[in-house]
Design a protein that fits this description.
Order of helices and strands: EHEEEEEHHEHEHEEEH
Number of strands: 11
Shape: globular
Helix content: 25-40%
Number of helices: 6
């Protein structure tokens, strides 16, 4: 049975870190719902390779209606974490132990949600020290799975491993 996945993103997301996993999730029978500040808005990746029309606004999205959270990287997570609505939305998934899939700079939202303490995780090299300060047990590995809930990866090169482990978790 397919899962309903909330994908939080805004302009300047890392194109392939959204498009590749989203395609894999959909191909495996899962639904990916994009969430931003404004429903219907078009957001563009930082490499101008992908434009995404937002399915739902954060004001109308309830974390209870989703089975998992997907946070692609790029500059998007840093912008979103300045908005308390996205931080609260993200924290809910970690608190209730629903799957959270974050790649590259995606863990920045988890840092701001204060949801990494005591967790094994990875992220892009430039945020690993921030993750460490947030109390994460940071690993420099292509994919890290923590407590059958949190899947993190470092960069676009890690997408095959990220997709593999994310799908294992989603298909449980």
């Amino acid at each position: 049975m397919g899962k309903k996945i909330a994908a939080v993103l805004t302009n300047m997301f890392e194109d392939v870190e959204f498009t590749d996993p989203a395609k894999e999730f959909k191909d495996a029978g899962h639904e990916v719902v994009t969430i931003e500040k404004e429903k219907g808005k078009q957001v563009t990746g930082k490499n101008n390779e992908a434009t995404v029309t937002i399915d739902e606004s954060i004001d109308n999205a309830s974390p209870e209606e989703f089975d998992a959270l997907f946070i692609p990287g790029g500059f998007s997570p840093d912008q979103l974490r300045a908005d308390e609505r996205f931080v609260t939305f993200t924290k809910h998934f970690m608190d209730v132990k629903k799957p959270v899939l974050a790649i590259c700079h995606g863990p920045q939202l988890l840092i701001t949600a204060k949801a990494l303490e005591g967790r094994k995780a990875t992220g892009f090299k430039s945020i690993q020290v921030d993750m460490d300060y947030a109390g994460a047990n940071v690993k420099d590995e292509e994919v890290v799975v923590c407590d059958n809930q949190l899947v993190t990866s470092r960069q676009p090169d890690d997408i095959p491993a990220f997709n593999r482990e994310s799908l294992k978790l989603l298909n449980k």
